[in-house]
Amino acid sequence: MEGKLENLNNFESIKTILSKKIEIAKLHALLLEEVKEIEKKINDLENLYFNGKVPEEKFKEEISQLYFEHNRAGLVILGTLPEFHEALKMCDVNDKIINEVLSHENAHSSMAEQLEVENNYKIRFVKLQDGRIAFIPSVEYGYPPNATPEQKQEISRKITNAPEILSHRDKQRLDIEIPKGEPDIFG
Ligand SMILES: [Zn+2]
């Protein structure tokens, strides 16, 4: 009985910490435009590197600088699907959206697991022009240290392409044209 109570308290305290993390991330959210600009730079640099147009050392240096900028604020990282689920429940969206986000991101993550690549769930909070805060869920992943640019490109494409329905961010990463007026989905 005592043990059970303790576990319950642990769960409650984890939820409290999580909601504090979300509060801080929201408070320091970067502007959506800035986030998009950094993501475009990351995509462009990766594409150059994948095509052998940027040497390894230069790539490593520049990509870590970009990720430093990208991840400096507004971000909550979740190690597991249940934690990701709890965090989404704190994002003021309905169950239908939560379930869509979970299944979309889980498809990215499952592919990463299948390829034996380290990965985490992320929720990024961004500030819109009118001051409202929006969130962007995603899966971040690393590459095996000894992978060649071609192998990294293959990993990136497989993980990005894993969900049945791709988001606009996924399509941009895969260089797939987005039809005019097509509604975007989360992730
Ligand atoms: Zn996606």
Note down, in words, how this protein is organized:
- The protein is α+β, with helices and mostly antiparallel strands and 187 residues long.
- It has a domain at 2-29 and 75-174.
- The chain contains 7 helices and 4 strands.
- It has helices spanning 2-27, 32-50, 56-70, 81-89, 95-114, 149-160, 168-174, and strands spanning 30-31, 75-78, 119-127, 133-141.
- A hairpin with a 5-residue loop joins β3 and β4 (133-141).
- The chain binds zinc ion.
What distinguishing features does this structure have?
4 strands, 187 residues, alpha+beta, single chain, globular
SSE inventory with pairings:
Layout: H1 2-27, E1 30-31, H2 32-50, H3 56-70, E2 75-78, H4 81-89, H5 95-114, E3 119-127, E4 133-141, H6 149-160, H7 168-174
Parallel strand pairs: 1-3
Antiparallel strand pairs: 2-3, 3-4
Bound molecules: zinc ion.
Zinc ion (ZN) binds at residues 104, 108, 163, 167, 170, 187.
Strand content: 5-15%
**What structural category do the secondary elements indicate?**
alpha+beta
Mean pLDDT: 93
Contiguous runs where pLDDT drops below 50 for at least 5 residues: none
Beginning-to-end CA distance, first to last residue: 41 Å
